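Quick one:
INPUT:
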């Protein structure tokens, strides 16, 4: 038993430490984009009136903030999942939605994807969805230069 404890203690020394100092430039940009994208989506499609953002699906006014999407508040939802790397940080691939439309309701984005997509096409139009699928179908690998450009684009949307 003592050998296992000693082995585990030594194993921790070999595991990579997850802190900002050990992250490479691409990982730092990835984290920055991950933080900027939801803000840009809420600004681009959230119809902010000074106090509230409005859910793009049902029109409900919601506060933005910590825990948004889990309880009260508004979340930025990826229409095509985050695993679609071409679309991961594209603003047209996001929608600000309330917790009911995001996860809680019977026809929410995570409960019934078909109804959700059809509602988004009804709101934004078929041309928007065709553009989204075109971008999704392209072969693209994010380079550091691409990530920096996307970061500037998202910051520009947020600054408006």
């Amino acid at each position: 038993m003592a050998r296992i404890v000693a082995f585990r203690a030594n194993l921790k020394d070999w595991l990579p430490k997850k802190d900002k100092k050990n992250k490479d430039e691409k990982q730092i940009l990835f984290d920055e984009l991950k933080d900027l994208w939801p803000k840009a989506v809420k600004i681009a499609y959230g119809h902010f009136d000074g106090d509230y953002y409005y859910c793009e699906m049902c029109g409900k006014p919601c506060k933005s903030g910590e825990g948004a999407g889990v309880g009260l508040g508004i979340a930025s939802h990826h229409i095509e999942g985050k695993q679609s790397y071409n679309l991961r940080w594209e603003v047209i691939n996001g929608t600000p939605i309330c917790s009911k439309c995001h996860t809680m309701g019977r026809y929410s984005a995570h409960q019934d994807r078909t109804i959700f997509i059809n509602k988004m096409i009804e709101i934004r139009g078929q041309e928007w969805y065709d553009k989204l699928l075109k971008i999704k179908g392209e072969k693209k690998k994010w380079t550091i230069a691409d990530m920096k450009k996307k970061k500037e684009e998202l910051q520009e949307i947020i600054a408006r």
